[in-house]
Please model this.
Amino acid sequence: MSDLQSPVKWTAWASLSATFFLMCVVRAWWTMFVLFGLALVLVLIFGRNRYCSSVCPLGAIQDATGDNAAVRRRFAAARWLKYLLVPVFWGVTITTTFTFIDTPAQLWVWMLRIMISMFFLAMVTQMYLGRRFFCVHLCPLRHPVLEPVRRTRRLLKGRIHHG
Model:
């Protein structure tokens, strides 16, 4: 299958490569925040899931391994699980940043642990609950940050066209 026919877009591969380079070669602890900033910019510009579908490095990995994904299952607890997972993710991320800001090496290790934990959770949920289940139901960026920005942008755009 050629790169043009691949379900994983070249932009996602580029993002995954850049993330790996920044996080594992440069050891830039702030890599995750750069990705989140890029996601916000893309939502503000395009107003759609452009980041999630075409740029997110975690999405790229899930798409690349998606042939082994379970058939999407209904998991009633997913709705409530995100209310636990998302605050834990942000709490750990923010606490880690402020706790280790003066020791960049430790901060990098903890940020890498957070990113690996999210990767592991995404792969496990995809394996048992279906393709991109993590992205749709549990992503700590999509639900509390990107969705409200996307909705606000849509509302403002509607008012500008009708006003």
